[in-house]
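The methods section describes the discrete structure representation at length, but only in general terms. An entry of this sort, consisting of the sequence and the corresponding backbone structure tokens, reads as follows.
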Amino acid sequence: MQNTRVKPRPRSRLDAAESADWRPAGRARTSKRAAAPPDPCRLVAADLARLEPIHQLLSELNDAYAGSRRVTELVAAMPVLSARCLRAAAGRVGADVEVPSIERALNLIGNRGLETVLLGLLEDLTILKADLEAGEAP
């Protein structure tokens, strides 16, 4: 039996400069990808001014009689903390399930999960403040 395999054609080896020569003037190559939206979990300098809700939240978490409604209000007062809680809750239930609200997210992660997210946020705030003072912030 004879080998019926067809050899692939060789590709032309043009580099970017050569391929730009044949492109019509004024028609630059544009990226089809849209710019990524900013990450809501990323801290910005303005978040350093929102320390009061964090202090109140820590007080509520230390209070044995604190209600979930007050904790939810305090978490919602800081958008970056809300986004991080939603991300943590989505990690618990799976990436394909949407967590509809902050209240549901807090129910899923519990007080321990909230404390973990909050401690991570406080660490990131400390690093951001140090970077701003050193003049190295992005």
